[in-house]
Amino acid sequence: MKSLYLVRHGQTLFNRQKKIQGWCDSPLTELGVKQAEIAGKHVEKLGLKFDAAFSSTAERACDTLEIMVDMPYKRVKGLREWNFGDLEGEGEHLNPPLPYRDFFVQFGGEDEFEFQKRMVDTITEIAENTEGENILIVSHGAAIAQFYRYWLDKSEVRRGEGGIQNCSLFHYHYVDGEFILQEIVTHDFSDIENK
Known about the structure:
This protein is of the alpha/beta class and 195 residues long. The protein has helices at residues 13-16, 30-46, 59-68, 112-129, 141-150, 190-193; strands at 2-8, 52-56, 74-76, 134-139, 169-175, 178-185. The active site is at residues 9, 81.
């Protein structure tokens, strides 16, 4: 059995500006850096030692991982966020109501189910081909949400309403080719958000 820990990156400039951010990138804000530091302290407090670490190729994910842990890691294109095509960097008010399905294809982006398959295939390949028991993966909100949806009926753990919190941690067990969600860790950022 392997344990995989999926983490969403810290808050970015585009998150704060409410811009669509998939394959385009923007830096972590000061708040985003602090969120990653808090997530790193949580990992330390748990005494978690990762045997391997992976990140999306996006700078926001790499920076989050580097703040959280001090260890070598591999950048993996398959862990990137949803490709929103020509709507990248535009205001979030242009997003349609959920579910998005194939909405972004008309703008040169990815179909929802192709995106979900990419995430599931990539994380499965990591689980299958990585030595050790504990694996850290830093990715993105929609990416983690699609992975979560795919494996939803294999677990009794459920996430609440709303989006996936920056630097939240989804802990999965990988057993017999299936991912079973064990826990979702969110953090109390109220002290740093109100400053």
